[in-house]
Amino acid sequence: MWGKLFGRGAERPAADPHALPVPNKQKNGMYTLHALGDARVLALVEAAEAGDWGAVKATLAPFDLGRDHQVLGELADLDGVQDWIGRAVAEDAEHRATALLISGARHIIWGWEARTSARAVDVTQEQWRVFHDRLHIAEEHLFEATELRPEWVTPWRRLLTSGRGMSLGLAVNETRRDAALRRDPLDLETHIEWVSQLQPRWGGEPGEALAFAREAFAGAPEGHRLGCVIAMAHIEEWVESDRKDCLDTPGVQEELRAAARHSILHPAYERRPGWQEDFNMFAMALALSSESIVAPRVFHELDGAYTSWPWKYMAQPEKMYARFRRTA
Q1: pTM score of the predicted model
Q2: Exposed end of the chain (fewer CB within 10 Å): N or C?
Q3: Three-class SS of residue 179?
């Protein structure tokens, strides 16, 4: 049916030999994506959970951790990595840059876990101390990683996060953003990080982030995932707005449709491990705008796959995903 409606490019791509089997779905037809939906990433996660550095290195072989933010994110989000990665940094000279990158990324997430998501005025002095101690370690490790592997983009994107957390100021983070984009001018995660940086809650001006996203998207090739920056810019606008129907306009709907068709719905789009997160970004933005033409296709392609990003911006993310999926 979707091929008839959207053309031959709407047909499902060939099966991925590394794709994990879809787990039993919940009653609402959804399931949470695990390990980017990829068996190789699952092996990596299991090695990291076991604290087996040798196995981690072996299972990293198919990936370029210096450019693959999503694979790095699987390690950064994993509790316990901080307990053993320091030994790898100290003892493995050959793979020191990789160990430093993982350690730096993990210490940022670990720092935010100590700070919690509470408002700044509600964070205790001890929480602030631990937060900054961990971010200092993260910055030290990430900068050393950039010296050892100057072509890597992932450390610079993570340094944008730590720079914002440490309130280093716009000029410092602009320098870090530029360093990332010199290495990959189309890097989606760097652009999304900057969209967050430009929000009023971080000192930006209203509309500034959306203008940045539009300029970036204008230079994106057909089928490139950078189109997701438009979806995230509108989601961020929704987060900042006092009106929860602020995206429900014909102009926003058309812009999201055009961005989706140019990127994730284009035949040239590559479904790499974790592609479902790209579709979830559009699913949330399209749903918030009450768009009814492309949204059903996006949810259809997801086939119930849910990723916490960006739905975690909502109070009941899984419930809202299920609701929007049902009504799409």
Answers
A1: 0.92
A2: N
A3: helix
